[in-house]
Amino acid sequence: MEIVTACQDVLEDAAQAKAAGKVLPSLEEERAAHEAALAKEVEARKAEENKKKELEHLEEQRIQDTMIQDELKRRKERVQESRRKNRPPPQVVSQTSIDTSVNGQAPHETLAFEQPISLMDTHNNQIIFQVVAGKICLRKGPTSKNFTVRPVVAQGAGDIPILVLKQTNLDTEVKDSNKFKSQLQLLESELKSLKTIRHQNILEMLDYKVHKTIDEDGESDTSWTVSVLTEFAEKGSLQEFLDIVGSLGVEKVRSWTIELLEALRFLHEKGIIHEDIHAGNVLLVRSSNGEVKPKLADAGYQNKLHALSGRKQPTDTISVAKSAYWLPPEIANSSQLQYTQKTDIWDFGIMFLQMMFGLTVVQKYSAPSALTDSLALSDSLNELVLKMFKTDPKKRPRAVELGPSEFLATDAPILEDDNEHSASPSKFGSVSSLLPITPRRQRRESMTVTSPFPRSRYMEDFVEEGRLGKGGFGEVVKARKRLDGQIYAIKKITQKSSASLTEVLKEVRLLSQLAHPAVVRYYNTWTEEVFDGSENDEDNTSTEVGTVEDSVSELSPGHDSDVDVGASSRGLDFMSSLGPQIEFGYDSDEEVDEDDEESDDELDDTSSLGEPAHNGITSPVKRGLVQKRTRSNSRYLRPYKTILYISMEYCEKQTLRDLIKRGLYKDSDEIWRLFRQILEGLAHIHGLNVVHRDLKPENVFIDAASNVKIGDFGLATSGQYTMADKASSAAAHISGDMTRSIGTAFYVAPEVKSTVAGTYTSKVDMYSLGIIFFEMCFRPLIPGMDRAIVGESLRHKNPTFPNEFKVSEKPIQADIMLSLMNHNAKNRPSSSELLKSGKLPVQMESETIRQALIGLTDAKSPYYDKMMKALFSLPSSQAKDYAWEMGAQHPTANDLLLQSIVKQKLVSIFRHHGAVETPRTILFPRSDHYGPNAVQLLDERGAILQLPYDLTLPFARAIAKHEPAVERSFAFGRVFRDRDSGGQPQTFGEVDFDIVSTDTLDLALKEAEVIKVLDEIVGNFPALTTTQMCFHVNHSDLLDLVFDFCRIEPTIRQAVADTLSKLNVQSWTWAKIRTELRSPLIGVSAPSVDDLQRFDFRDTPNKAFTKLKTLFEGGDTFQRASSTIAHLRDVIEYTKRFGVRSKIYVTPLGSLNEKFCKGGVIFSCLFDRKVKDVFAAGGRYDSLIREHRYKSGTHSEPRHAVGFNLAWEKMARLPKASAKGFLKKPEEEVNGIWTTKRCDVLVASHDATILRTSGVEIVQTLWNNEISAELARDSRSPEDLLSQYRNDHHSWIVIIKQDSVLKVKSMDRKDVDDADIPSHQLLAWLKSEIRDRDQRNGTHQRARLQRGSSQQDTSAAEHEQDVRVLVAGTKSKKSNRRNIVEQAQARAASVVHEFLDGPIAAIETTDQVMELIRATKLSDPEGWRQVTHAVPTTERRYIGEIHDLMNTLANQNKDTTRNAFVYNFRTGKCIYYDLGA
């Protein structure tokens, strides 16, 4: 119906249009119009798409250009950054620039240090200087003088601080002996280490200098001075301060003692013993904030200075007056003083007492024990003093162990009587007045004076939410901080004795150093005094404190304390289970033994100045101390008690013990994850020199995120732990029964369990970890016999696993366990070693990036190959691709042509010595012989390779592994240097000449031949012959003997040799070399540098060897050098026989390429001018071959090789870059074989058709006749042609005109007009012109080079011809004799070569007839008739034929040559015949 309606509508429209007189288009017309519209639309759409594509292409091109510009910009920035890093330090005022006439500073009143010194002024601005001046004597001692000085800086540098210069003159009779210099070298080494130390309580050493003494008469030749520059202590020394004030207040004593102990600990950890601690060596320095800080000075080196100066160590009047009992017992009766860290502690104790009681304390009391007997010291102070003055140095604590002492950490008084606590000890009067002892009341840390009770920081800041655990000396609670709302674990410890607080403070000190995700975090510590209602407190575990024995027994770490598990939380039990610490419990089905046994027979080891008493006999000092402590214990009955709060990280969940009980052994992945975290935590702990000593599953906490947190450092110690010091503690520690559910002895290392005296380290934790790891991988052990049996088998010297533990299923775990449970601690792996061992599976969690780096560098990693493939599958950057070659220099055509000529000449020289060109490897494994600018590559298998840095190493690698094909060889190749900016590496052309042998016969002869080859190269190149050249020769063994004589340490010898290789080359003077040798990177001592300078000479061999004998006097060094010197004499003698023209010098410090030439000759060829430069270098590199030789058990034939490296491409630039000689006479120097013409003839035409037809034919003809030619580009006019080829230096330009007429332009000679020549005469014309040109320039030498480059040229013409130059009376323009000789030889050679172009008539006759023919001329027929009549009749016709043949040859060669030869093939005789005569 719709179709009908549509048709009806169409018909109606047609009827209406017809009625209106309109004509409707036909169906075909409508279709055509529709198709046209569609085509137009398609065309428009296509045009739009093309425009869009064009815009996209333009945008892509713009982005690409931007990327390329960005890449080039990055390169430029890298270059600038590299230049910035290598930029010399800011200009400092040097000593030579100081105007002495203005400043009035004599040379001896200033001092220049070897390196620039940087410090900050009062406004925190950097000051850089190198010279100090303005010396004013501050104080003078028996050996040293202290001066105040000021840095010499540029004007406007700001406030210049005052510094102190300490100078010690070492003016002794044996100052030049090797022993003295060795001691001086050791002193300098110690000063070097002290210079790098930075600590807020150690006087900063800015720099030092060991130098020859400088006085009014100038520099001494024999005396030495040690100058040390330090910061200025404007407040003087502690001794001066105490001399004025008498003594210090107790709080100042505490703060300064803590700071100085920290400084001493820092020194000891760096391996430095102070050796001279006294009040005079503690200087008071005002810091920038106005606070006065005490600083230790003169650490370590003061005694050495006294020894070197030959004087006894100075002692002040106080030291002289003190009793011998004040000396450390270990050195009191020793003739040879051996200072240790424990000696420093004794000396520190004396200074500590002087701060409290005045300098005269060592005069008032005969010994430390006399002081403790006479004064009623408080318990905590008495304990600290007894520790410092233990007579057995092994039992004397270290500085790190003194820091947590109760006296230093609390406000404990000095004396028992609190009233005298506020009085100055200097006002106490006589010692006898101090003896009466009255009980003191409990001290308080009062927060306010108005309230009867002190304000509690804990109650104000925290809301307690429940108890986590409880022990004998306190508890651990869960508390929320009001300010931030976070949950913390608060350990509350009640002080019951000085020993308990000391142990707790030690734990706090250790915790404060730790910061790692796998270690429980420590936040804060503080103390409070609260009302003591302990008599009625059911939570308190002990109320009876009567005697010191009771107190000590409570401190014994061998007994467990009472533990109550908190009911409000099943989280962390933060209680220590050992000793005075709080026990850490956890939710468990087993009951914990709550026996609180007391040990009545233990003696406190810290309460005696000597050895502990035995058999019940107590020393008077011991009895006095017990009485005092008995009285002091009354303080616990006072209504106040001290509580120590430790705020720590709260672990919400559980311990590792809980996981083990729940079947951790079933989840292998979880075991490895937790084990790795434990290892990482231990690596951090051990890295800080801390040993946990109580590692067990109960002390490994698991937080809410199931991550490890190692905690409970109650038994931790710093560094090595001495068994002898803690015998009773160790015994108690392991006394637990292994059948208990949580037995600490189960995890104790064998060396701890042993009662033998000794030391143990962090390896004890690793043993415990081995047991823990077994428990993690095994079913939970049943308390009782199961645990005892398994534990006993594991703890055997050869551990055995239970039958249930399938080693075959867990081989890696078993291997780790056995290594950790090794009874030899040295064989146990450390935590860091185990992490790097590759035994742990790869962890792909939060440490993905770190593990990726480990996997990338560890070939044993299972992901190694995958990562390498992914790395090499990365798409290349298009911008970097395009920018790769940008910035690289490219040679011109003339450069390339000259290089080819130079190469041909070098090949000719090498071939004369029978050398054959051999290839060199261009890719090989990376070598450690090169620096960072070697080009290194990485292949898909992860091997690190490198491109050649030189051609010697790849050749040494080749002949080390394969039989050399020839004895003499040479090689041309490319060597590479990395660019700091990235992109294409720098490349240089190098040529090597080498002689290889398999025996040691005539090694000196071969070394001399190599030098001879270099000398021939010098003599065959014009730019080298006009420059004075010389050879520097040395031997690696001789250099080593010089290093031995100068006491150069073996570890830095290679760096020293590398630096000396630059000596006297370019701008490297001795002053610059000295600065580099003395820099921290190398660190050669001043006496050694001074001795090295004596060997900085070059001389003829005989004179040089005589000088060496003089310098080596006083030892057997010259005798040891006799073989080396004899070998050098042989080499030099052979060079004379070879006729080496260049001068040869011996240089004892010559070390270029010494790293390759160990045990062999070293030589270099230099430009012998004011500013020297190296032309070539080489030597015997047998050691390099041995280094790469396969170390097999079978006997292999040795290889010996000597050769040189030459940057031959630089020689091709010499005529251009050479200086005045070439510039003055360019027309002379460019002649000869070094003329750089790429092509002789240029064939051109202004008609393109003729150029491509006739031009091609002409070029082909010239090529066939060995004339170099090329076809020109299209040109419109002669001017256009010349502009295109102006710089190509063609000799002739042939322009093809119409009718085969050629116009030839001579480009070499401006005085010759253009010639029009028919095309058939061009060849003969060019040959004649070339011959004339060669006669003028002597360039036939080049042709012979080209012919002889591939085969040895044995012609006599190659030998040097004798040229006698006779100069006229008037000076010739060509007065350069060498140029005249060379050109004469070249012209003679070209004339001889011209003869070879003549024809040859080969005839058969007698030699008598040949002589008759020689006398004839073609222009004289009578001469030929005489020859005809002189021969028999049968031969007369043959003579006529010869005559006709000669006439024919004359006519044929009329325009080319007149030279011919007649050869008698019957006898072999040949004569010359002139066809033009």
TrEMBL record:
Residues 42-63, 70-83 have a biased composition (Basic and acidic residues). SMART domains: S_TKc. Its EC number is 2.7.11.1. ATP binds at L468, G469, K470, G471, G472, F473, G474, E475, V476, K491, K492. Pfam families: HGTP_anticodon2 (PF12745), Pkinase (PF00069), tRNA-synt_His (PF13393). InterPro entries: aa-tRNA-synth_II/BPL/LPL, Anticodon-bd_dom_sf, CC_SR_Kinase, Gcn2, HisRS-like_core, HisRS-related_dom, Kinase-like_dom_sf, Prot_kinase_dom. Keywords: ATP-binding, Kinase, Nucleotide-binding, Serine/threonine-protein kinase, Transferase. Residues 147-408, 462-840 form the Protein kinase domain. It comes from the Eukaryota. One of its GO terms (molecular function) is eukaryotic translation initiation factor 2alpha kinase activity. PROSITE patterns: PROTEIN_KINASE_ATP (PS00107), PROTEIN_KINASE_DOM (PS50011), PROTEIN_KINASE_ST (PS00108). It catalyses: L-threonyl-[protein] + ATP = O-phospho-L-threonyl-[protein] + ADP + H(+); L-seryl-[protein] + ATP = O-phospho-L-seryl-[protein] + ADP + H(+). Residues 532-541, 588-605 have a biased composition (Acidic residues). One of its GO terms (cellular component) is nucleus. The active site is at D694 (proton acceptor). Belongs to the protein kinase superfamily. Ser/Thr protein kinase family. GCN2 subfamily. This is non-specific serine/threonine protein kinase.
